[in-house]
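seq as requested:
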Amino acid sequence: MTQTTTTALDAYHAAYEETKSTLPGSDTPWVTSLREEAIQIYKEHGWPTTKLEAWKYTNLAAVRENTYKPATSEGMDLTLEDLDEALIDALDAHRIVLVNGHVDPGLSTHENAEHITVASLAETLNEAPGRLEGELGEHANVHDAPFLALNTASFPDGVLVHVPEGAIAEKPVHIVHVTYAQDEPVITHPRTLIIAEPGSEIDVVESFVSFGQARSLTNGATEVSAHPNATVRHVKLQREEETSDHLWTFDTTQQRDSAVRAHNLIFGARITRNEVFTTLAAEGCDTTLNGFYFGIDEQHIDTYTKIRHAEPHGTSHQLYKGILDDASRGVFRGTIYVAPDAQRTDGYQHNPNLLLSNEAEANSVPQLEIFADDVKCSHGSTTGEMDDSWIWYMRSRGVNEEDARAMLVYAFANDVLEMIELEPVRTLAQRLVLERLEQDEQLLEAR
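struct tokens:
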């Protein structure tokens, strides 16, 4: 067991025991079995410490200072105006909003979705649990993942996105996760399940924001089931306040000739831990896992990725870029795993980091685990400060030093941001970078 405080462990286990009879699907055997197995795994493993290699650079002591109570949506009378910063200008999408982990129908427009299903997980588990059997909990592996296990046991609601065979979604789905902690520390366990049937195609955006004066902990999970020839494009945009901490797992299972494009954009929260996994479970799968993080103040941003090539002829591409300013810290640990039968695998992984302050720090651990002999895999990482010769070159062409630095930093970030397929999301991400650089949008025109 790796927990450091029995009190914290017992508190979250006790919260589960108190609420389990009211959780969605509590009268369905396979759901209760899923939850019970998960809570036992959480009890066995507890909270990870820096003694574990995968958590070597991330200390959760500051998160454990609070005992977070399960958040409720009662009395949360939010309006669309309150959510203005969580919405994305010009994004024409089916919107579903969760407040403290519970779907808020009054803020959502998902009921108008055509050709696809966008629904509350709680309603689906209570009314038609058979629709989720064999999918929910099948793609997010709770073993050796205590926070994912806690989410699986405890989630009170979430979002189901189901795309039927051969359907191409006309609009993206925008899932807005709102955490509101006003009077006392709260924890939320939002859950998303995306099922793309054979030959289907879908774009999903998940936004995370927070409000309130008290501390909050988001412990979220997204699992994706990409059936043969399906295409799933997913963007996660994290913009929570400094009173928030953020834990999130993204786990995908891909079947033959499917494609997954996932972009992870991190701007908010005090301490962040993202775990991003995908399994290429059949031949011909194509995976792109890209990410960008911009740390300021004392933010701590940790990303742990693993791409599992289980079968031949799989392709994976991974580019995670980080900009770290002030006393922020970035951690990246990425692994490409190639099974013995996964011949003709093509895998690429790169993690460049740009330090804007002498106090900023980056730790990068790219890894290859290859057990096949006919593969093409490469990985790399670079960390450094801005080269003075770059500044000199820009100044020699009439650009002042401040603008030159901003343009170079923006160009470094935009290398990965421009890969985001949805233009409104891409534009928003670019604007968030400009805000951190204290630049206006004229820089976009000058680049």
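Residues 1-5 have pLDDT under 50 and may be disordered.
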